[in-house]
UniProtKB/TrEMBL annotation:
Chain spans, region Disordered: 109-141
Name of the protein described by the UniProt record: Flagellar protein
Polar residues bias locations: 115-126
Keywords from the named record: Cell projection, Cilium, Flagellum
Length: 141
C-alpha cells in the first residue's frame, strides 16, 4: 500500500483505486448528486445555471459530462467550454474552428519538417519544431 497526497485537498491518504482521498470522493459524489437532482427538474438548464444553482464548479460539471456521468443528449443546453478558446461545445475537447486551425498548423509543420532546414531547426531546438511547436504557434496567434 502506498501513500500520497490528495490532488484536491492535499491531505495524506492511502492510495487505492482512486487517486483521491475518501473525503474528496464523497464530496464529488455529493456534487454529482446535486447536479443530477437539479437537471432532473430543469432539463433545459445551461452549465452556468447548474453551477449557480448547485454551487458546483463549471470545471467539475465539465468533468462529469466528459466522464459520461451527465448526458448532453438528455440535457440539450449542457454545453461546456472549448479547452482552447472557450466557445461552448457539445462534444470533444475543442470546437471545430480550433480543431481546423490545429490541423492546418500540424499539416504546415509536417511540410516544413520535410525540408532539410526545418529538420535541422527541430533537432537543434526541440521547442521550435514538432507537434508542440504547432500547438504553441496556434495558442500565441
Amino acid at each position: 500500500m502506498s501513500l500520497g497526497n490528495c490532488p484536491r485537498c492535499g491531505k495524506l491518504f492511502a492510495k487505492g483505486f482512486k487517486n483521491m482521498c475518501p473525503n474528496c470522493i464523497k464530496d464529488i459524489e455529493l456534487e454529482y448528486e446535486k447536479c443530477l437532482k437539479f437537471l432532473r427538474e430543469e432539463k433545459t438548464a445551461t452549465i452556468q445555471e447548474v453551477s449557480d444553482a448547485t454551487e458546483v464548479s463549471i470545471k467539475q460539471i465539465t468533468k462529469f459530462i466528459k466522464e459520461g456521468r451527465i448526458s448532453v443528449a438528455d440535457n440539450p443546453n449542457m454545453m461546456y467550454p472549448c479547452e482552447i478558446c472557450g466557445v461552448l461545445i457539445y462534444e470533444n475537447n475543442m470546437c471545430d474552428s480550433c480543431r481546423n486551425h490545429l490541423t492546418k498548423a500540424f499539416t504546415n509543420k509536417a511540410r516544413e519538417g520535410s525540408h532539410s532546414q526545418g529538420t535541422q531547426d527541430s533537432q537543434s531546438n526541440p521547442k521550435k519544431g514538432g507537434a508542440y511547436g504547432a500547438v504553441d504557434k496556434f495558442r500565441n496567434s
